[in-house]
Design brief:
The chain is an alpha+beta fold. It has helices at 2-14, 22-31, 68-82, 123-139, 151-169, 174-188, and strands at residues 40-45, 49-54, 58-63, 95-97, 107-111, 116-117, 211-212.
Length: 217
């Protein structure tokens, strides 16, 4: 088992785009059918993906783990539905790569939104604009036939979190682990947790993920 886990770990490292040279990223994208314009530059590295910019004007997010594949597929379907309903610019994906030998966790591409990352700009103005955007997002109820997570998805996520926390805490403090598990049990029994009207939310509306153009979000 230990030998197998080590082999899987090596495979993950080798297939993580965060460890690839930029020329290799560019080659893989070209071979996967995306016109990069000849060059790519690294924009950032997150938990789920590596973002690169292409000289053709795209942002490409290359998946780093299996969990991102479904996210890419959902974005491809959902973002075009949101764009006409929001007052801010929304990424509009035009290319989606399914997992393959070249891209083990797939990739997604959309035209780069003009502007600059909001870091360092006026906090009050940014806070007001971000709040207005989030209100707009929460008020959207029509996304057509795009499948969105429901109560069953929340139950699954909570069950996974409960198991992960138990495994992490129990070896350190069994009493604390039992208390936390009891909290999870009581939390799951709360009616208000399951009786709600689903709303869209932004997963990570931090300043590093927002773009300003002439001071406007």
């Amino acid at each position: 088992m230990q030998r197998s886990t080590s082999r899987y770990g090596r495979w993950m490292i080798q297939n993580d785009p965060a460890n690839w040279k930029l020329q290799d990223v560019e080659r893989v994208l070209q071979q996967s059918g995306l016109d990069t314009g000849g060059n790519v530059n690294r924009l950032g590295v997150g938990y789920h993906s590596v973002a690169v910019g292409t000289s053709a004007g795209d942002v490409v997010r290359l998946g780093r783990n299996p969990g991102v594949v479904g996210r890419h597929q959902l974005e491809m379907q959902l973002l075009p539905k949101l764009e006409p309903q929001l007052s801010v610019a929304v990424p509009s994906p035009h290319w989606l790569a399914s997992p393959s030998a070249l891209l083990p966790f797939g990739a997604i591409a959309y035209p780069m939104i003009p502007g600059e990352v909001t870091s360092g700009h006026g906090a009050k103005s940014l806070a007001r604009q971000t709040a207005s955007f989030l209100v707009e997002l929460h008020e959207i109820t029509d996304v057509g036939d795009v499948p969105l997570p429901d109560v069953s998805e929340r139950r699954r996520m909570l069950a996974e979190l409960r198991m992960v926390v138990a495994k992490a805490v129990a070896p350190i403090d069994r009493g604390a682990a039992l208390q936390i598990d009891d909290w999870f049990e009581r939390y799951n029994e709360a009616d208000e947790l399951w009786e709600f009207t689903p709303r869209l939310v932004h997963h990570d509306a931090s300043e590093d993920n927002l773009v300003l153009r002439a001071g406007t979000l």
